[in-house]
Amino acid sequence: MTDEQSKGEETRKDPQKPPVSGRAMRRVRPRKRHLFLMISAQLLILLPALVAGWYLWERAADQYASYTGFTIRREEAPTPTDVLGSLGSLSAGSSSDSDVLFEYIHSQDMIGRVGAEHDLRAMFSRHHERDPVFALRPDGTREDLRDYWRRMVQVSYTSGSGLIEVRVNAFAPQDAQDITQAIFDQSLRRINDMTAIARADSIRFASTELASAEAQLQAARQALTVFRSANQVISPEADIQVQMGLINTLQQQLGEELIKLDLLSEQANESDPRAVQSKLRIEAIRKRISEERRKLGGGADMQGDGEDYASIVTEFEKLTVDREFAEKKYTTALSNFDTAQAEARRQTRYLAAFEQPTLPESAEYPRRWLILGLTVLFLSVGWSILVLIYYSLRDRR
Predict the structure, then answer these.
(1) CA dist., res. 318 & res. 324, Å (int)
(2) Would you say 168 and 155 are in contact if contact means Cβ atoms under 8 Å apart?
(3) What Gene Ontology molecular function terms does this protein carry (predicted)?
(4) In DSSP terms, which residues pair with 158 in a beta bridge?
């Protein structure tokens, strides 16, 4: 069957359908939606991408990055006292110190301290007239400077090893290095301040203990002095030895008088004046021995105020023990205080830099191709979403 016969057959089947030529079948006319897609893609993707590329290569100022890296180290020395042992426990948390330092670098206090050394606003707003997107406004508020600081200063922290790495971007190589060096110096000062707080607490505690021990020692010595003045004794042991010597002497005299009385009893009668005198001496010596023994064991003391040597010795030993305990406590407290002062003069924490602040030679930022690629990607995604929304609404009509 020829082509003309087949066309005639189709015409007979559908008389209302106009005949289509071969050239018309090979040519497809673009519809309105195709034009809409092309125009919208050019407006929403191509044009913004061209504007972004022009700005990145023509207006965006070069940024130089300076790097530094450090970790917190400390000197650990064994301490003989509990006070400094507690100080060592405070110094043991290097990871927590790194956490504090990580947050401190982004804090307003760090910005203020670095800004006191360098004019951050002038450094960061150097190219604001040419590059208002990546530069800081000269009249920006403190909050604007804080937000811009967090854009330009990037801090990475590895919790396991405690390593902190800092990257600072600036529009001049020397500015980047100066800011990085200032951050390192202020971080070191902050670590020293944190250590000084622990040291001050240790010294204050040791000083309080020393003052308490000194007051206790003075009270013990004063009580012993009052006791000696009241009893008129320096050492009860010495008085007891004298008292025992006196009793021994009286015992010896008593024995001699008894022997003498026995001899007189054999030679004369009881009315002999010598025998009577001997008996009186014996009675007096026995009475004296009884009085002296009563002083040692009970009854009246040397002054007759109702206390004996046993009570005096007991009280004296108690006061002596209190004084010795106070002296030992004072010696220990004084040693603790001296050791705390010695530790306070040492720098137990410091920053160990494994990378000193670098001076950049070439600009690394802004990363123009990366920014442009991300811009095109997000514009394409946004355009695709709008197209899908458009067709979804069109199909529901």
Answers:
(1) 10
(2) no
(3) protein tyrosine kinase activity
(4) 163
